[in-house]
Amino acid sequence: MKRVVVTGMGAITPIGNSVEEFWKSIKENKIGIDNITKFDTTDYQVKLAAEVKDFVARDRMEFKAAKRMSAFSQYAVCATKEAVGQSGLDLEKEDPYRVGVSIGSGIGGMKDMEEEEKRLLEKGPDRVKPLLVPMMITNMAAGNVAIAFGTKGKCINVVTACATGTHSIGEAYRSIQCGEADVMIAGGTESSITPLGVAGFTSLTALTKSTDRTRASIPFDKDRSGFVMGEGAGIVVLEELEHAKQRGADILAEIAGYGATCDAYHITSPAEDGSGAAKAMEFAMNEAGVTGKSIDYINAHGTGTHHNDLFETRAIKLALKEAAADVKINSTKSMIGHLLGAAGGVEFITCVKSINDSYIHPTVGLREPGEECDLDYVMGEGISKEVNYALSNSLGFGGHNATLLIKKYVD
């Protein structure tokens, strides 16, 4: 099996619209959560979200192209531009059929659906905009990236709710491993902070109703009360190792393992014993040839809901056994909220940056861990620590579990 490395990264997040801005904010423990500005929340119980800020699509891409894309596609294309730029790839010199795309979105263009449904009811079917369908369907992030960058290889859209970004990177990794592609652009993107999106998750009792931005997204805390919706994109360039070396690429990290399972238990709740998520971690570690004792850091799914944080803690204990007590764990969602389908992409980038900078950020806002949440979630301030092996976990509605094992690159 071919080795797969990371050579480029791009991000649009609630705390920065580039990887550099995002990581600077991470090191400053910056919280990107605030009052919702995208619509009037007067009649809503939920008032807070983690919105992308200062993003103007026409300043980042051709105006006509931007108009034909929903926000989730705009985020993906812009993050890809950054990732490809960092990678140093000259796509004109690549065989376009050996360069693929694996970018997913959990929900797609929800804002477009809402606006056109209103237009349909008020003005009739003939007034619905012609581009509604290609703007709202989730595969159009991958499609628009392929069009923008001329990639003609495998182009797929994995949709597994909140595990989408991690599965998308995992499936891209597999595609390179088995020789289907030399390069894959992979990750997740989302923009669903809309009236229907917030109302739906509120009715599901998944969102916190806290109005204190510093105590809203508090994974593993005894006072946690739900997650905060976020938005953005996390995109990476993955390459077959020899391909990257031949062109003199700067290799950021290596993917060494990928695990994917299903709880087959409940439409929203993870399995109570954590067995499904544990098995995904075990699969990733087994593929990498390491045990729990080798894992330095876990970027947890850590949503801030009671069930997720408790059951994920149980899963980590099952997978890492006695080593679970020593591993450093955090949740990036404590600063940027839950980016749904984009979460895994941004959290993967966080793992790579932690490896590169020997820094593990804190779970911001965590004051007192909840019952049974008795592992090291990095409270208070971040820590300087060499990270050789990291796990990134994502768990999605429907029972989807995905884990990526990222390691420091050694030739």
Name the structural class. Answer: alpha/beta
The fraction of residues in strands falls at: 15-25%
Q: In the CATH hierarchy, what is the superfamily of the largest domain?
A: Thiolase/Chalcone synthase
Number of strands: 14
Low-confidence stretches: none
Shape: globular
3D structure, described in words:
The protein is an alpha/beta fold. It folds into two domains: 243 residues, Peroxisomal Thiolase, Chain A, domain 1, CATH 3.40.47; 149 residues, 3-Layer(aba) Sandwich (Peroxisomal Thiolase, Chain A, domain 1), CATH 3.40.47.10. It has 13 helices and 14 strands. The strands form three sheets. The protein has a ten-stranded mixed β-sheet, sandwiched between helices. A two-stranded antiparallel sheet has the order 2-3. Strands 11-12 form a two-stranded antiparallel ribbon. Strand 13 and strand 14 form a beta hairpin. Helix 10 packs across helix 11.
Walk me through the topology.
Blueprint (H helix, E strand, L loop, with lengths): L3 E9 L6 H9 L6 E2 L12 E2 L13 H5 L3 H17 L11 E6 L5 H14 L8 H5 L3 H10 L5 E2 L7 H14 L5 E8 L4 H9 L28 E9 H6 L6 E10 L12 H14 L8 E3 L6 H15 L7 E3 L2 H4 L6 H15 L1 E2 L22 E2 L4 E8 L3 E8 L4
Parallel strand pairs: 4-5, 4-6, 9-10, 9-13
Antiparallel strand pairs: 1-7, 1-8, 2-3, 6-7, 8-14, 11-12, 13-14
Helix pairs in contact: 3-6, 7-13, 10-11
